[in-house]
Amino acid sequence: MDKSKQTNASEGEDGVDLIRNLPDHVLQLILSGIPSTEEVIRTSILSRRWRHLWTSIPSIDIDYTRGLDPDKELESNGFKEFVYWVLLNKTLDLDSFRLCCADYYDMSTIRRWIHAAVVRKVKLLDLMFSPIDEPEDLEIPHCMVTCSSLEVLRLCLLGYRRLCLPKIPGFPALRVLELNDVVLSDIYRRKGDLVKYFLESCPLLEDLSLLNCCTPSGSLVIASPKLKNLRIEKQEMIPDPEVDDMLDCLGLEISCPNLELLNAIGQKKMSLYLYLISRLWR
What's the whole-model pTM score? Predict the structure, then answer.
């Protein structure tokens, strides 16, 4: 094709730059459709107008799963600085903060990132990490538990960890909870049932997903008057040191009068008991 007849993709038939004439709120919608924050930031080089436009996007999505070796300190520090820089440059409250990183990063760094997101009144937290500097139990930051804006929490702990939560009422606005690779009850230390804690502490919780989680006791009780959606997939078990044999079946008891959707995929041997689920349709 003759170059003189070629038209820039952003221009109309009359040669007018369509993108340049779009208002800022439309450009922000376009940027919001780009899943990667790194790619969104790259648009800042397009022109002076685009330089700070990315800071008005109310979401952060950073995926760093290259699996750095522990001795690559320079690259690690560069990534830390990048995440801090993104969080500090956001001018609006955050609708969502998604962070996926390898297990190279210490928990103190991750806690600071979470705190920065909470300060921005984040509504959705989607975190995937496996800190190498923490003991078997992983302490959840106090600021996350008390965050009044957090409505959705997705937490994946690569390598199965127990969560330690403060003994205070928490997650006042949480509606959706997804736990992945988490030990659900700390029977070894007698600290209680993690699922029960969330169900009793979160007054607005309606959607619960337990994915690839462990139940040391081999049984799981889910009782909630408000829960509407429940998803349990590939439930694993770990042995109880106080019994001789590993439990080879999962006992699942569900008592949720407002439950509408149940998806349970687990062990070959599963005992399922349903109570007060008259609204269940699927």
Answer: 0.77
